[in-house]
Amino acid sequence: MEIIESLEEIRVQNPQAEDFSYSDLTWTKFGTTEHHDEVALIPYARVEEFIIGECSNPECPTRFHIERGRKRSRGSLREYKPDEYLEYRLYWCSFGPENYGEGGGVLPSRKYRLNTRNRAARPQSMRGCTCHFVVKRLYARPSLALLVYTERRHVNKAGFVCHGPLDRDAIGPGAKKIPYICNEIQQQTMSMIYLGIPEENVLEKHIEGIQRYCGSDATVDTLASQYVHKLGMIIKRSTHELDLDDQASIKIWAERNKKSIFSYQESSETDQFMLGIQTEWQLQQFVRFGHCSLVAADSTFGIKRLKYPLCTLLVFDSRHHALPVAWIISRSNLKSDVEKWMKILLQRAQSVEPGFRINGFIIDDAAMEIDPIRDTFRCPILFSLWRIRRSWLRNVVKKCDTIEVQRELFKCLGEVVYSIWDGVDTSKALERLTLDFSDQTAFMHYFTSTWLPKIGMWLSTIKSLPLASQEACGAIEAYHVKLKVKLFDDTHLNALQRVDWLVHKLTTELHSSYWLDRYADESDSFQNVKEEYIASTSWHRASEIPDSAVILDSNNTVVAKVRSQRDTNVARVVWNPGSEFAFCDCAWSLQGNLCKHVIKVNTMCENREGYGDSMSLRSFKEKLTSVKMKPMDDSIALDISMALTLQMFDQIKQLVKLSGTDDISNIVNDLPVKWGCKKGRTTVGIPASIAALTKKRSQKRKR
């Protein structure tokens, strides 16, 4: 907004509405570069209508009282400036300014009435609101009033909303009568509201949860109804825009939600912006499913559309679905910055579980720094092909017209990747690709400009790191698709360049969605939510396809068919079966996704003649072969390697035996007996005198 130094350049505004407010006027910065205010000129006769409009703010209804006023008589000034006042009045919100809420603590309401004139409709609630403005009746033009807004938000000095429906911390005198609401019930209610479930259903589930603690009562039901309605109004009226400036808005959010932030770094000349978010529930899931298991990264979401790219750390829950346990918003890929937030994240997990460690870290971007992962988590690193496969398939379908060309081109792209294990020169495979499909100018332009400069780096990473399975790739892709649906809705396109909007969407709608999914699965409630959650990955949907629905021809290994379960007359055709670069003609696959038909066909092609191994299996065999071919020396290092190998072999045998048995008792009986420590044993073996003395002491305590 341009700063205007002359009052004559500001136009007079006279809105047509009977009552008007701040949003109905166009505000101008008036003053100098060092000191300026937001001002507007209106007719002096309409000042009362402006005040009435400001009092009728639906988010913060209030009244304004005159905190300070001055007057001058006409002709008292011989020389005056254009903005000199004839009358000066400072209007202040009547919910202030007694308690300013320093530190952002809870502000309890008063239980008695103050005899203060011109107070708000609730005089017992003085919440330290700093909203105030000045009305100047101009000395040079008495028919006009200059409005000077100093603070238009109804917040305290800590930056928190301090009254109205958006005030979450206000406590009234009747708080003792409200029934007990644990965090689980509150999170369940908030999640249902965020997901758009009707208020009647939300109230029903809320009352069921409360009755587990305080029984059925009419008063409890009434208070619960009021609580759900108020919480719904707060959520509907809440906004991500805590300040007009995005950087100031995210700073206010960070001050309010310190428990949900594990790393925060403001942008400066030397440092780039970085925000790490992990709620308490996400930390619990990180420790629960990440300990001695795998952690994956969806590392470059929104790199073209968002202001800052989003990196998500994922764990695999009890159903092997990808569960977000941390979000990192930053453009920095520097080793020092990545290592910084990774170490803080590990320390948070070890503060809950001292022995916390992970067994593997899956990355999906060849440009991602792997040294911080090895230095911090000290675990093997795997590579996921889902990102490169999805990008290639989407552009093949988008830029090539006929399905015949699409499947042949996608197969040829797969051969480029397979060439790193087949002993074929990669440059020759790329040359063949460009020659055979030179007529597909749209795709070749995309491939040569986007992928050809970095294809060497990607293929080198794929060859050097073991590859993740199709189940892991499908789970990560399912999370990516869900995140894309939640964020890239058409109604939010104007907010994509604001970080506060991204944080608001992640911590409200997306967090609530995954919380409710896990709660529905573990508590066996919300059957519709549970069924959608279970069937959210292509791997699970593929497991529901019977083997009899898959048609494999031993004479023609180029194509396979999968009959539809809904309509047996419909069959999906899968080209290049047995490969990660198999092409299916279903609608889900044509959108670039890994579909259930491809997964089912690939699982059926395993250990069959005429079909090659999957890339993950080829990568695993390559690593074993490379270890076998290394020269061994007769040293202690060989003994240690042999001991670790035998230990891993025993663990694999136990896992295979456990997964293949129907009766767990047979395995338990075969386990070796482990003696506990002496403190954990019974009194057998303790001298009789000591045992008798212990018994007498315990009897004395009982008396």
Automatic annotation (TrEMBL):
<protein>
    <recommendedName>
        <fullName>SWIM-type domain-containing protein</fullName>
    </recommendedName>
</protein>
<keyword id="KW-0862">Zinc</keyword>
<keyword id="KW-0479">Metal-binding</keyword>
<keyword id="KW-0863">Zinc-finger</keyword>
<dbReference type="InterPro" id="IPR007527">
    <property type="entry name" value="Znf_SWIM"/>
</dbReference>
<feature type="domain" description="SWIM-type">
    <location>
        <begin position="569"/>
        <end position="606"/>
    </location>
</feature>
<dbReference type="Pfam" id="PF04434">
    <property type="entry name" value="SWIM"/>
</dbReference>
